[in-house]
């Protein structure tokens, strides 16, 4: 009479063991997929940041071809094309991204950025107009400011630049852009202030240093500002200041600054030497 009970226990144990095995297999499969996803995300991050841009393009092209429904691979390809300065191709890929069901507002911002880089300002403005005002990010307002600048809508540009500055902890680049906007409007003192601020946030931003010298030269202030620069950079700044002086008609001062640029440069400064020779020849004639 004990055999049926024993058989029932065996069958129950077998089912339990089978269920446990299936559960363990499912857990193992989930763990494997998690590892694969983690490795994939790490590889994507590496390719979008530190890898050679063209290698990244090749990687994301391959992955996108194998899994065309994956929006993350399309994003990676578009960003890698931007890094490789292949803006027209990037614009095309971003266009595919924004037609994807999983598109985000940040994708639309990146599409507008690619359009601006490829010179399609009108289309970029139209794309930015589709983004709701609740999407308040540094990149969005930086691009809005640039578009307003292109349209010479100065009040809007100033408002967008100010908002963008408040949305980032690294505002040097956008302050430099804002300063250049002021420079084109001939607000030289306003430009000088913004370039100076930009440099306080990024002491290595040579573009802002060069623009600062331009804004001072436009005000006939030919004194070199106190800046942390290399010998080569200082020579280049003297050259910029010299050209500003010559443009203002202060030729003698410009000649002296060109001589300073040639003397300061640790190697032969061909561009400054050529400008100085041309200036001397013109004076002689």
* Straight-line N-to-C gap: 128 Å
Give the DSSP E fraction (strand runs of 2 or more residues): under 5%
Order of helices and strands: HHHHHHHHHHHHHH
Largest sheet: none
Structural class comes to mainly alpha
Strand runs, count: 0
- Radius of gyration, in Å, reads 30 Å
Rough outline: elongated
- Low-confidence parts, pLDDT < 50 over ≥5 residues? 31-38
Mean pLDDT reading = 87
- Residues in helix, %: over 70%
| Individual helix count | 14
Question: Which helices and strands appear, and what pairs or packs with what?
Answer:
Elements: H1 2-49, H2 53-66, H3 71-83, H4 87-98, H5 105-117, H6 121-129, H7 138-150, H8 154-166, H9 172-184, H10 188-201, H11 206-218, H12 231-247, H13 251-264, H14 270-284
Helix pairs in contact: 1-2, 2-3, 3-4, 4-5, 5-6, 5-7, 6-7, 7-8, 7-9, 9-10, 9-11, 10-11, 11-12, 12-13, 13-14
Describe the structure.
- The chain is an all-alpha fold.
- Helices cover 78% and strands 0% of the residues.
- The chain is built from 14 helices and no strands.
- It has helices spanning 2-49, 53-66, 71-83, 87-98, 105-117, 121-129, 138-150, 154-166, 172-184, 188-201, 206-218, 231-247, 251-264, 270-284.
- The longest helix is centred in the first third of the chain and has 48 residues, at 2-49.
- The radius of gyration is 30 Å and the shape is elongated.
- The model is unreliable at 31-38 (pLDDT under 50).
